[in-house]
Amino acid sequence: MRKLTFVLAIAAIVPLNAAPMSQADRDALIKDLERSRTLFLDAIADVKTEAQWNYKPAPDRWSVAECAAHIIAAEQYFRDGIATALKTSALPADKQTTAGDAVISKMVRDRATKFQAPAQLEPKGKVVPKAQAIKEFEATRATTLEYVRTTKDPLREHGTATPAGQVTTAYQMVLMLSGHTERHTAQLLEVKASPGYPK
User: Whole-model pTM above 0.90?
Assistant: First the structure.
């Protein structure tokens, strides 16, 4: 009886006809996540002092440390969003496509358009020393990569609507997670390039 109850519970979450993502989709996500991981770690590699780590070009600008804290916090935020999307009903067939992948990847990385970070992702109170930030980032990115490498979830079949009313698949939310890392890596590079950045 317990076994039957477990099977029924799983069936309620994942439709019996749900197909896991293709190997090509899986490989593309892994490549994207590895790329953004490397870019972030390379960008902070030469940040050697606390003064550099915590320097703010202006009172309303984030420091390298704050950008890092935001990147780290966002990783779990996106994973939670993906888990929530997977519990929704399957999207119509015409929404389960690759059509928006490139657009979403480009949009998230484009710093010309500014967005207000959700309150829970504001870096205030989350800043830690660089060594700890690297450790936390590596741990949370490893969790994301392990999920992508092993999941049987049908990421193309489920999604959510953006505030603008556009449908984003769970697969595209993983792309957004990776792109978000690159977006704020670009931001911290801007901090490092500012005239007052400590040498």
Answer: no
Note the pLDDT tens digit of each residue in 159-179. 987 666 677 999 999 999 999
**Do 65 and 133 meet the contact criterion of CB atoms below 8 Å apart?**
yes
Choices 3.40.50.970, 3.40.50.300, 3.90.1570.10, 1.20.120.450: CATH for 23-193: 1.20.120.450
Average pLDDT of 53-75?
Answer: 97
Distance CA 61, CA 53 (A): 13
Locate the domains of the chain by residue range.
23-193
